[in-house]
Specification:
Layout lengths: L16 E3 L15 H13 L2 E5 L6 H10 L7 E5 L9 H8 L2 E3 L5 H9 L5 E5 L5 H14 L4 E6 L8 E5 L5 H15 L10 H10 L4 H9 L6 H6 L4 H4 L14 H10 L3 H10 L8 H8 L6 H13 L4 E5 L2 E5 L2 H14 L2 H23 L4 H23 L6 H9 L1 H6 L3 H14 L13 H15 L3 H17 L3 H17 L3 H18 L4 H16 L15 H21 L3 H16 L3 H18 L2 H17 L3 H14 L11 H18 L1 H12 L3 H8 L45
Parallel strand pairs: 2-6, 2-7, 3-5, 5-6
Antiparallel strand pairs: 1-4, 8-9
Helix pairs in contact: 1-2, 3-4, 4-5, 6-7, 6-8, 12-14, 12-15, 13-14, 13-16, 16-17, 16-18, 17-18, 18-20, 18-21, 20-21, 21-22, 21-23, 22-23, 23-24, 23-25, 24-25, 25-26, 25-27, 26-27, 27-28, 27-29, 28-29, 29-30, 29-31, 30-31, 30-32, 30-33, 31-32
Length: 757
């Protein structure tokens, strides 16, 4: 697009003032993206007399306001005042007048000249580079807006001016598509013939993501392609401040390297603001105020001072604010965070801050574990979801601590409900296995948490079992049981026996499973243990009892175990249902509903079975529990078949079949799940014919989880749940933080949250 320039604005008649025409700067490179931002800015300037675009260094504020001003429809046009090179407060008015070409030969204040110049105009004044002169610039703008009713001001800076009536428009970095397009455009200019292709596109996308989509950083990175390939550039980005240099000689000095662009903001901060910036760098992803106060509030910056200092960093675009379901959260761009991390490392305070960060999130994990068995279970799951980046950072730091990885072992075990209940089996296995391998074993028990290893072993066994890795599960559970008996740890013995009982159940030994599960439940009762896992043990016992009653054949139950066994299974699940209702628990409830639905289906009541299993599916998908959701979809396929729709049943089977590899062995390979599934497949294939059956299965395999859940619930008025997504850069839902989370983090009890007495 041809750049827009405008004639010099008219001035009032004055023999003392001569005007030197000045236009907006011409664009020397292509303007990429920002269409929504330009539209929003145009609407804002048409509505408000003062609009300020704020954002971190290098995000493209100056370029955006210049482009927006070029489209200004005011009759006297748009003029630019760039105060970047002005350093003295007393020079602001004079520099603004000079920038506009107003040369005053009389002895008059520059402010008076500016007032007179704009008094009768309908013009747009573009103000840029004022961050270091906010107070005098605010006074200047306020004075001119009062003196010139037809004047509008469009400003660009790292913080607002703070003038009454100001509309603040935050400018975010480019999205991935526009960042990649910008990189490609600048790369082609630096290296003629460069083009995105299948060999370099993935690297370029990752470069842009790692650089937060900051236009300056992307442009500097593209310029490095004169000597590096995209892959080499990506490999070197860990040292981004040394790598990303070499901006054009005509660029402002603060934009010639990434370090100076960010450093300019740093220079404008007070000592306390710099201190908080550095300390906030220990957070990964977003964080809330309570976490910032605990982690950062000490030694030169009290917890009570954090709020005000954080507010200043927000005003200066060092930190951004996010509003989500869980309340207000804050975030720093990775490039800004990395700059602060360098300063923190230079101060020698990194280890202390990382310890405080680890302790806070260990406390948060403990709180969420406690709330998992309560009416706040959903909030705990959401809170853990939004805090995953920080929990990972805490785990990584704890497990890299020389000589003492026990806090990491404890944290990995405390998060069992996240790994098992919130659909993160693979990640849970990684952290649990790593923490167990790094732990020195029983001889490291002098730190006061002797059962941290046992809890982690039991959690690892549970995760491995759900993944279908029975060998790894059995090994971990045997070690847990042996060590628990050696140390007389009744809690660990109960959990190890419980998980071993479930292992027997999925291993088709229902008799042994029943014996172990009954014994585990007796142990739980003796020690006063009641929580989601204890309720799950009752559901698993119900399954073991039910299995011994036989499987339905081609739609008809086989009464090998007698009606009494089925009645006992139903009684166990109904008891679980009552306890869940009393405590507000939903996750274990879903599994009880699944067993009750299975009973209803096997007894020839598909309508009741559907009601129960659909409620189960809504709960499980809401928690992102893939295992439970797939078991529910498999049962819905059987129910749908008995309702007379074999084609739809085959679609659901195909959907579940395609998703099971994400967990491990389909339905764990166990008879309680395998036999009805096999029977349903035979009946479905016989009714549809091989070709139609396979076509329907292929259709289901293409659905994906969310679509499969919608399809499975499509026959009822059940609301289709939307599974929460893990937060990314600049994105993510929050959880419900309670007042309890504001208390300082402490070393939690090793099995805390799993005993309610």
């Amino acid at each position: 697009m041809r750049p827009t320039s405008r004639p010099a604005p008219r001035t009032n008649d004055s023999s003392d003032v001569a005007e030197v025409p000045r236009d907006l700067p011409l664009e020397l490179t292509a303007f990429v993206g920002r269409a929504p931002e330009l539209t929003r800015l145009g609407e804002a300037t048409a509505h408000d007399r003062l609009v300020t675009v704020v954002g971190p260094g290098g995000v493209g504020k100056s370029r955006l306001v210049a482009r927006a001003a070029a489209a200004c429809a005011l009759p006297d046009g748009a003029r630019l005042v760039d105060l970047t090179a002005v350093h003295a407060v007393e020079h602001v008015d004079r520099a603004a007048a000079a920038s506009l070409g107003l040369v005053d030969h009389a002895v008059r204040p520059a402010l008076e000249v500016l007032r007179e110049h704009f008094a009768g105009q309908r013009a747009l004044l573009v103000l840029d580079g004022f961050e270091h002169l906010v107070a005098p610039c605010a006074a200047l703008v306020g004075d001119l807006l009062r003196a010139a009713p037809g004047l509008r001001v469009l400003a660009a800076g790292r913080r607002p001016l703070g003038v009454r009536g100001e509309r603040v428009v935050p400018l975010a970095p480019l999205d991935e598509r526009d960042a990649v397009a910008l990189f490609a455009d600048r790369a082609e200019a630096a290296v003629p013939g460069f083009a995105l292709d299948e060999d370099n596109t993935a690297d370029v996308r990752e470069i842009c993501r790692r650089l937060d989509g900051i236009p300056l950083a992307v442009e500097l990175a593209a310029g490095r392609l004169t000597v590096l390939s995209p892959g080499q550039l990506l490999h070197r980005l860990d040292d981004r401040f040394r790598l990303l240099t070499g901006g054009g000689r005509d660029a402002p000095p603060r934009h010639r390297t990434l370090r100076t662009a960010i450093g300019w903001s740093h220079e404008l901060c007070t000592a306390q603001e710099r201190l908080l910036w550095a300390r906030l760098s220990v957070f990964a992803g977003s964080f809330d105020l309570e976490a910032a106060e605990y982690v950062c509030g000490a030694q030169g910056l009290s917890a009570d001072e954090v709020l005000d200092v954080l507010g200043e960093l927000l005003a200066q675009s060092v930190v951004s604010r996010e509003d989500g379901p869980g309340g207000v959260r804050y975030r720093m761009l990775e490039t800004v965070r990395a700059y602060g991390a360098d300063w923190l490392e230079g101060s020698g305070d990194t280890a202390r801050l990382r310890h405080r960060h680890r302790d806070w999130y260990a406390g948060l994990a403990t709180w969420c574990e406690l709330e998992w068995f309560s009416s706040r279970q959903k909030e705990a799951a959401a809170r853990i979801e939004v805090e995953l980046p920080n929990l990972r950072a805490a785990l990584e730091h704890a497990l890299n601590e020389p000589g003492d990885t026990r806090p990491g072992l404890h944290l990995a075990g405390t998060l069992w409900f996240c790994w098992v209940g919130c659909g993160r089996l693979a990640e849970g296995r990684y952290w649990l296995q790593r923490s167990i391998e790094l732990d020195q074993g029983p001889e490291a028990e002098s730190d006061g948490v002797p059962d941290a290893r046992l809890k982690a072993l039991c959690a690892f066994g549970h995760v491995a079992l759900l993944q279908g890795d029975t060998v790894a599960a059995l090994t971990a559970l045997h070690e847990c049981r042996d060590e628990a008996e050696r140390t007389d740890d009744a809690v660990a013995v109960a959990y190890a026996e419980h998980r071993t009982g479930f292992l027997a159940l999925v291993g088709d030994d229902a008799v042994r499973a029943e014996r172990l599960l009954r014994s585990a439940l007796e142990r739980y009762e003796d020690i006063g243990e009641l929580n989601s896992l204890v309720l799950l043990a009752r559901v698993e016992l119900a399954t073991a009892v039910l299995v011994q009653g036989g499987f339905p054949g081609e739609g008809a139950p086989d009464d090998r175990g007698g009606a009494g066994r089925t009645a006992e299974a139903v009684r166990l699940c109904e008891e679980v249902r009552e306890v869940c209702e009393d405590h507000g628990e939903r996750w274990a409830l879903a599994y009880a509903l699944l067993v009750l639905a299975y009973v209803a289906w096997s007894e020839g009541d598909p309508a009741r079975a559907r009601r129960l299993v659909e409620e189960c599916l809504v709960i499980e998908h809401g928690f992102q529990d893939l295992v439970g959701a797939l078991l529910a979809i498999e049962l819905l396929a059987l129910v749908t078949l008995d309702e007379g729709d074999p084609a739809e049943a085959a679609v659901l089977r195909g959907a579940a079949g395609a998703l099971w590899p994400s967990v491990g062995s389909p339905l764990f390979g166990s008879a309680p799940s395998r036999d009805p599934r096999a029977s349903g497949e035979r009946r479905c294939r016989a009714r549809l014919g091989p070709a139609a059956y396979e076509a329907a299965v292929r259709e289901g395999a293409r659905l994906g989880l969310d679509a499969a859940v919608r399809r499975a619930l499509g026959r009822s008025a059940q609301p289709v749940p939307v599974a929460p997504q893990e937060p990314r850069e600049g994105d993510g839902p929050g959880g419900g933080a309670a007042a309890e989370t504001t208390r300082p983090a402490a070393s939690p009890a090793p099995w805390s949250g799993e005993t309610t007495g």
